[in-house]
Amino acid sequence: MLYQEPMLREGALQDQVIIVTGGGTGLGRAMTKYFLELGAKCVISSRKLDVLEKTAEELMHETGGKVLPVQCDVREYHQVEQMVADTLAHFGKIDALVNNAAGNFISPTEKVNPKGFSTVMNIVLQGTYNCTYAVGTHWIETKQTNKKVLNIVATFAWTGSGYVVPSACAKSGVLTMTKSLAVEWAKYGMRFNAIAPGYFPTKGMVDRLFPENLQKMLDPTANTPVKRAGEFQELANLAAYLVSDYSGFVNGECITLDGGAVLVDGTMNYLDKIPAEMWNEIEQMVRAANKRG
Ligand code: NAP
Fold first, then answer.
1. Which pairing describes strands 67-71 and 96-99: parallel, antiparallel, or unpaired?
2. Angle at 4 between CA 40 and CA 98, to 5 degrees
3. For the chain, which has fewer Cβ within 10 Å, the N-terminal or C-terminal residue?
4. How confident is the model over 233-256, as pLDDT tens digits?
5. Which residues line ligand 1 (CB under 6 A)?
6. What is the pTM of this model?
7. Measured between alpha carbons, how far apart are the two ends of the chain, in Å?
């Protein structure tokens, strides 16, 4: 199928320097791989340096491109500043930032204590602001234009959703930031857009949002009109378009890539069906997945 194939022309991102937070795994890795294939140089960042280094090696081997792995917890502003400094020292410039790093877990909200809520808010909303502020003010101070920020959100950013309340609140904030800065910082030559992916079965997502015992009970594609999961390449195609100059008139937009699921029910409110006694088992599975990394 064509949606499994690369879409942009060869060299569409030639010599663009792109930072992808959370770029060592899942969708971040898939976007980075395609950016490299299109000629970009990439920085991938997250907390686990060993994962980043392995991914960087693999991607350089697979694509022949250049990847700099940088350890950076997006919650810590001084680490974000260091990531920007490392990128500039290594590649000399930054052309695009993809705010993809996130934390999420399913839980009845009465079991989410304030610390759990703020952990997710700090990674997703504060972390996106930290990276956007550090990179954006660099562009403003150095008077560079034609720069792009792409934020990865979720469809529950505007529908809301039970059982993932911290993430839904944080993604709503990121969507609002996208639209706000698309207007305010357009005068500095920046564009801001977002993608709201539907069901893309990455390890990180499956471990934390769809653990094994749930998979036996629920089919995540059942509510998706096209009756399938998303393919990494189709997300990478859209992301590459949005950070490329082809999308020069697209600004402040959030593109939903979910096979129509949000029109049926893109939320996780179906978890109402889970019997109360099963939540302890789910919590253990998610905690074990977090420990494994
Ligand atoms: P993933 O592989 O678990 O990606 C999350 C990434 O964020 C990891 O690489 C993780 O690396 C990084 N991260 C977590 N906390 C961090 C922190 N404090 N600082 C820096 N990096 C941090 O999951 P994914 O499915 O690819 O998700 C990617 C994005 O897509 C997320 O924004 C997610 O909300 C969004 N999304 C995914 C789906 C889907 O179906 N897969 C659907 C809707 C939205 P470390 O652990 O090394 O820090």
1. unpaired
2. 35
3. N
4. 999 999 999 999 999 999 999 999
5. 21-22, 24-28, 46-48, 51, 73-75, 100-104, 123, 127, 152, 154, 197, 199-200, 202, 204-205, 293
6. 0.97
7. 33
